[in-house]
Automatic annotation (TrEMBL):
Domain TLDc positions: 271-440
Protein's name in the database: 10596_t:CDS:1
Domain of life of the organism encoding this protein: Eukaryota
């Protein structure tokens, strides 16, 4: 049988490995001088211990990792990738997960430095980043953080589960960037002594990271004290958007707005928007003077009407939504990904009357997960914020309203012009879907 020959061949290879006295190739794993006319492959990055394990695997198909250190096993992982030993690579990677997680936790910077350069190490990359995000403080406070590889830092900043306050992330980033910038670092870290050239160099290093900072989660005080001093190193268009956000509460378009902590993500049973946008809407509901995004489930969204199951008429909407308290309306435009919506803090009632509030708003999203092109219009004429009429499904100041089966959008000055821009904007359509949610404050949070 073929397997028998394989078994005998493996034994022959094992004898060659242990007793060979005739050879014409030397693989150099530590610096030695060239001898005679032997062909020599230099591999100084592979230790003798690791290469002995590689040879054993090549000659016998066996590898014993029981008594090996985490450092040597990790070295074997790198060597097996470099030598294209896929079977060995997969085995060693699994062994690291199962037996040496403590060693990896103590050497995250070292491990990440190598695994982010290896496409085949995606599993190990994800494990390390997830572990850091679960307990980030030891990692970001470590002395080795300043030597973190650029791709690793980018990977961390892109994650929504990196559970660290955003201003702490900014401080870590700016310190890392200073260390990596030519002419700065520990010998020139006093920004009051920097010249224009220093700031320009800092800007080049910072540029690829700046859009990943969630500025909407940073307080005005921290912005003034800790971000404003680096204005010269931030691209002008981004800085202007951030400044406008703090002065006028207009959301920036060039930075990420999604809250990082998925642990506290608000959930919504919607077929119109993704849960990320529920957090944005909760922010809009809550935000007045406080610009900090609220994550800890301060609101619950309870579905009370869906046109696909309850009927697409203003009567069906009213029968489900009247006297329910504060409500969120979501409308999906047909044949596009566009979404319109509005927040009614007073709730729907019966009869014909104008309701007064300064807390209502309308909004639009380009699609169900849009966080860059979204728009919000807050009420301007509070006496005409909400119009109650039995012939309307809902009516936000005759700017965004429903009559029979149709949705109408018009500009009349009752809401600011962010969503419905001007008097020339006039649109009506039969929506593909309408949802209404009861907005419930979570008093336990």
């Amino acid at each position: 049988m073929t397997s028998v020959f394989h078994s005998g061949l493996s034994k022959d290879f094992s004898l060659i490995l242990n007793d060979a006295d005739d050879y014409n190739v030397i693989i150099q794993v530590v610096p030695i001088t060239k001898k005679n006319d032997m062909i020599m492959f230099e591999k100084p990055n592979i230790t003798p211990t690791v290469f002995e394990m590689v040879l054993k695997f090549l000659y016998t198909g066996e590898v014993n990792l029981v008594d090996q250190s985490g450092e040597d096993i990790f070295g074997l992982l790198i060597a097996s990738d470099e030598l294209l030993l896929d079977e060995l690579f997969k085995y060693v990677q699994d062994h690291l997960f199962e037996k040496h997680t403590s060693w990896m936790h103590s050497n995250f910077v070292l491990v990440l430095h190598f695994v982010f350069k290896l496409a085949s190490c995606k599993k190990l990359q994800d494990y390390c980043l997830q572990s850091i995000c679960t307990d980030p403080q030891p990692f970001i406070n470590s002395k080795s953080f300043s030597s973190l590889d650029k791709d690793v830092l980018l990977g961390l900043l892109k994650r929504d589960d990196f559970q660290v306050e955003e201003i702490v992330i900014w401080n870590c980033l700016i310190n890392w960037v200073i260390e990596q910038t030519p002419g700065l670092g520990s010998k020139n870290c006093n920004r009051t002594k920097w010249n224009q050239e220093n700031f320009e160099e800092l800007k080049k290093t910072l540029e690829q990271f700046i859009s990943l900072i969630r500025f909407v989660e940073i307080s005005p005080k921290d912005f003034f004290d800790k971000i404003r001093p680096y204005k010269a190193a931030i691209p002008n268009h981004i800085y202007e958007e951030i400044e406008e956000f703090y002065y006028k509460k207009t959301f920036p378009k060039s930075t990420n707005l999604i809250p990082r902590s998925r642990k506290f993500q608000i959930e919504i049973e919607s077929q119109v928007i993704k849960p990320d946008l529920a957090n944005v809407i909760a922010h809009w509901i809550e935000r007045k003077d406080d610009v900090k995004l609220l994550l800890r489930e301060k609101y619950k969204f309870e579905l009370i009407y869906r046109s696909s199951q309850d009927g697409l008429t203003h009567q069906a909407l009213r029968s489900k939504c009247n006297n329910q308290g504060s409500c969120l309306v979501l409308v999906k435009q047909p044949s596009t990904t566009k979404i319109y919506g509005g927040y009614n803090p007073l709730g729907f009632t019966s009869g014909s009357q104008s309701l007064v509030t300064n807390e209502s708003f309308t909004f639009s999203f380009e699609n169900d997960k849009d966080t860059t092109s979204m728009k919000i219009s807050r009420v301007v004429k509070t006496n005409y914020a909400m119009w109650e009429h039995n012939g309307n499904g809902f009516n936000f100041g005759s700017t965004f309203y429903m009559i029979d089966q149709s949705i109408y959008l018009n500009y009349n000055g009752n809401y600011d012009g962010n969503v419905v821009a001007n008097s020339s904007f006039n649109s009506n359509f039969v929506p593909s879907l309408i949802e209404v949610f009861k907005v419930i404050p979570n008093v336990s949070k």
